[in-house]
Design goal:
Distance between the termini: 57 Å
Number of helices: 25
Strand order of the largest sheet: 2-3-1-7-8
Protein name: Glycine--tRNA ligase beta subunit
Enzyme class: ligase
Organism: Niveibacterium microcysteis
InterPro entries: DALR_anticod-bd (IPR008909), Gly-tRNA-synth_bsu (IPR015944), Gly-tRNA-synth_heterodimer (IPR006194)
Strand content: 5-15%
Subunit structure: Tetramer of two alpha and two beta subunits.
Shape: flat
């Protein structure tokens, strides 16, 4: 008999930030256990439920008894199993006894070849697993494997879980499946909402679980259904006051994990608090109170917010009034921090940064500011930007770290620096660069705008990369405590997406120059270039660029990384040419020949050209060289690669008719020189040998 199975674990309030993950893992573990015991049908469906006080799953088409299975088992080679007179050997009898097989069954054993030896095989019928016998074990194993960082005991129990557990439901259809998990016997009762539910709730059948909990327990058991309901009610309540809620998927998940019966209310705070930067107000409402701030059509904060409560009150003022008092205290703190911070200018805070350790081998944050100021100035000069503005922004970029507001809300670093810089009378370019020097902070984040902001942002990231590589603090495996992968990707995105005409090797050399001599920072640059190249290679592959094309362009990381997209586009057009495959194969052959060459390779001497084919190739190379140089100087990488197509005939004929390793040393050296010049032309944009299959 097949029917829907329900398993529910009733607990005390589970960790909200982990609830969705716990629910999925609980359901997945039970489903996989049922599959392993062959207790589910061909197309089963399972539904996950997770609320603050329960983890549950329903699985359709679960059998009470799995079908019997035929199992074919290898016993042992016939030569070992039988004695000389054909009777069972002691080894065979011992094996049969261990497996519970009667010696009389030997006559029915199958003989088949296993490798080079004839072997006995025994086929037997294995009874299918009974749901009643295995379900508790499946549930216990799923509980054991949940991603719980810390467990606890409760009462005088020896059992352990993330929170105390008070109930277990195991229902197959309407029948209780007996068993015990975490010291609890399975039943068919649970508990609803602490205040709105009927108390103990009897679940008549697995199919009726969600409906029963909602109707009798006032609980929306499904995490996804509850989340969708909250999102809908938030949008509806916001529209009623002509606003929209701040979008925050993580906050929506957390609030969903905090309530079982969500009801949305509109709260309000005094308009005078809007004088505080809205980022501060938004953060304190979201982080401390789990409210949803409201924005007008222009994205400006209004003095209303949304509350997702776990109870439906007869008089809404009881909830909105209490929450208004709570938020007022929080916003008063934010206003106090803001007013206090503005009493001191940013540059007056710099001496305090001498007491903030950046890294024990790299000095204080104030030491770092000196490096950033110099490096940002050099980068701005290379960009023909306002050097003084870049240096000023770099000097003030970290000053807000010692403000009251950032001390309370570290997420606001940079943001508060921009506000305080404006208040101090700093220029708009400087103020914006202070905030934007942290960008991009994560994948898909916006980039700094303008050359001054880009200069400070690059200085911040390159100083970190060079400094930590110089002291041996490199990322290993999945460990990257100083965020160097993020810094490398951020620098690459700034250079490439804003098309900055900067040379990476020069930037790294400038960054290395800012460190004390004992750090030997310049020696770290080769390893750092390799690291940055790997980050770019991974980034391009993730974007869907063919691997061989990425490898061709990044065989040697271009110093001007802003050229990479153009070079990739050129390679993509080149591989579509009918001559591309032959030229790539020829180039691969040339590269291999040159690798084996001994000694330095000189220049072509036309007087030493002997064969017509090598003369023709030399003429083609020499004639094409000026055009190639012109195309490369003008960054016409597509034109440069397409021009190689005209060399195909001469290259093919050369390899058909000319022996490079001639017995005469001078002729051999001259032919190597010809190939070297040809390889230089062919690989000026990308190593096209990497395109050869």
């Amino acid at each position: 008999m097949q029917d829907t199975l329900l398993v529910e674990l009733l607990t005390e309030e589970l960790p909200p930030k982990a609830l969705a993950r716990l629910g999925e893992a609980f359901a997945d573990g039970i489903f996989k256990g049922l599959v392993a015991h062959k207790l589910v049908g061909a197309a089963p469906e399972f539904h996950t439920f997770a609320s603050p006080r329960r983890l549950a799953v329903t699985v359709s088409g679960v059998a009470a008894q799995a079908a019997d299975a035929q199992v074919r088992e290898k016993i042992m080679p016939v030569s070992v199993a039988l004695t000389a007179d054909g009777t069972p050997s002691p080894a065979l009898l011992k094996k049969l006894e261990a497996k519970g097989i009667s010696p009389d069954a030997v006559a029915s054993f199958e003989r088949a070849m296993d490798g080079k030896s004839e072997t006995f095989f025994h086929t037997m019928t294995v009874p299918g697993a009974a749901l009643d016998a295995v379900l508790a074990g499946i549930v216990a194993e799923s509980v054991k494997k949940l991603p719980i960082p810390k467990v606890m005991r409760w009462g005088d129990s020896t059992h352990q879980f993330v929170r105390p557990v008070h109930g277990l439901i195991q229902l197959h259809g309407s029948r209780v499946v007996p068993g015990e998990v975490l010291g609890l016997a399975a039943g068919n009762t649970t508990r609803g909402h602490r205040f709105l539910g009927e108390g103990a709730v009897t679940v008549e059948s697995a199919e009726a679980y969600a409906r029963t909990l909602f109707e009798k327990g006032s609980v929306v058991a499904s995490f996804e259904a509850r989340r969708s309901l909250i999102a809908h009610e938030l949008a509806k309540a916001a529209a009623q006051v002509g606003a929209h809620p701040v979008e925050d998927a993580a906050l929506l998940d957390e609030v969903t994990a905090l309530v079982e019966h969500p009801t949305v209310y509109v709260g309000e705070f005094e308009a005078e608090f809007l004088a505080v930067p809205q980022e501060c107000l938004i953060l304190t409402m979201k982080q401390n109170q789990k409210y949803f701030p409201l924005l007008d059509a222009a994205g400006k904060l209004i003095n209303k917010f949304l509350i997702v409560a776990n109870i439906k009150a007869d008089i809404a003022d009881n909830i909105t009034g209490g929450n208004a008092r709570v938020v007022r205290a929080r916003l008063s703190d934010a206003k106090f921090f803001f007013d206090t911070d503005r009493k001191a200018k940013l540059d007056s805070r710099l001496p305090r940064l001498a007491n903030v350790v950046y890294h024990n081998k790299l000095g204080s944050v104030l030491d770092r500011i000196g490096r950033l100021e110099a490096l940002a100035g050099k980068i701005a000069a290379r960009l023909h930007a306002d050097v003084a503005a870049a240096q000023r922004a770099a000097r003030l970029a970290k000053a807000d770290l010692v403000t009251e507001m950032v001390g309370e809300f570290p997420e606001l670093q940079g943001i508060m620096g921009e506000y305080y810089a404006r208040h101090d009378g700093e220029g708009e370019v400087v103020a914006k660069a202070i905030e934007q020097h942290y960008h991009p902070r994560f994948a898909g984040d916006s980039l700094p705008q303008g050359n001054v902001a880009c200069a400070v942002a690059l200085a911040d990231k390159l100083d970190a990369l060079v400094g930590f590589y110089a002291i041996g603090e490199k990322p290993t495996g999945d460990k990257d405590p100083f965020g160097l992968r993020r810094a490398a990707l951020g620098a690459l995105r700034i250079l490439i997406e804003t098309e900055l005409p900067l040379e990476l090797d020069a930037l790294l050399a400038d960054a290395a120059a800012g460190f004390a001599a004992e750090h030997n920072a310049a020696e770290a640059i080769p390893a750092l270039v390799e690291f940055i190249g790997d980050r770019l290679r991974n980034l391009l592959r993730e974007q869907g660029t063919p691997v061989e094309q990425v490898d061709a362009v990044l065989a040697a990381l271009p110093s001007r990384v802003a050229d990479v997209p153009a070079k990739l586009a050129a390679v993509a057009e080149f591989v579509a040419l009918p001559e591309a495959a032959a030229l790539a194969a020829a180039n691969k052959r040339i590269v291999n020949i040159l690798k084996k060459a001994e000694g330095a390779i000189g220049e072509i001497d036309v007087a030493l050209l002997v064969e017509p084919a090598e003369k023709a190739l030399a003429h083609a190379v020499i004639e094409a060289a000026p055009l190639q140089r012109s195309l490369l100087e003008n960054a016409d990488y597509t034109g440069s690669l397409k021009a190689l197509a005209g060399l195909r005939g001469a290259v093919d004929t050369f390899f058909e008719e000319v022996m490079v390793n001639h017995d005469e040393p001078l002729i051999r050296a001259n032919r190597l020189a010809l190939l070297k010049q040809l390889a230089g032309m062919m690989n000026a944009v990308a190593d096209i040998s990497r395109l050869s299959v």
